[in-house]
Amino acid sequence: MTALNLTTVRVAALFASHLQPSDSPNPDDVRLAVRDAIRRHGSRGCADVVAEEYGEHPDCAARRMAWARRVVSGEPGTLDSGADRMVRTCRTAAA
């Protein structure tokens, strides 16, 4: 699997996980949430959750995906900035 594919799987898994930006997750929380989502859904199943959410709640899904991408990419301040409070009102099917 290439790095791009691993990143894509991690983003989809975080998206499909129970973790919310309002939980103020730390890096260990993120790693565990990604691991648990992949174990629960599998990589394709996480992608299915993403697709389902974009179909049912596109506005919320877009905000959650942006958050998941920032967290997985390691963007500085993503986990502790509080800038993602608007995402907390959106819940994924996995939540």
Describe the structure.
- It is a single chain.
- Helix 1 (3-16) crosses helix 2.
- This protein is mostly helical.
- The protein is globular.
- 63% of the residues lie in helices and 0% in strands.
Summarize the structure.
This protein is mainly α and 95 residues long. Helix content is 63%, strand content 0%. The chain has one domain.
Task: Note the topology.
Layout: H1 3-16, H2 27-56, H3 58-73
Low-confidence stretches: 81-88
Helix proportion: 55-70%
- Percent of residues in beta strands? under 5%
| Rounded Rg | 12 Å
Tally of helical runs: 3
Give the overall form. globular
Number of strands: 0
SSE series: HHH
Determine the N-to-C terminus distance. 28 Å
Average pLDDT works out at 84
Largest sheet: none
**Structural class label:** mainly alpha
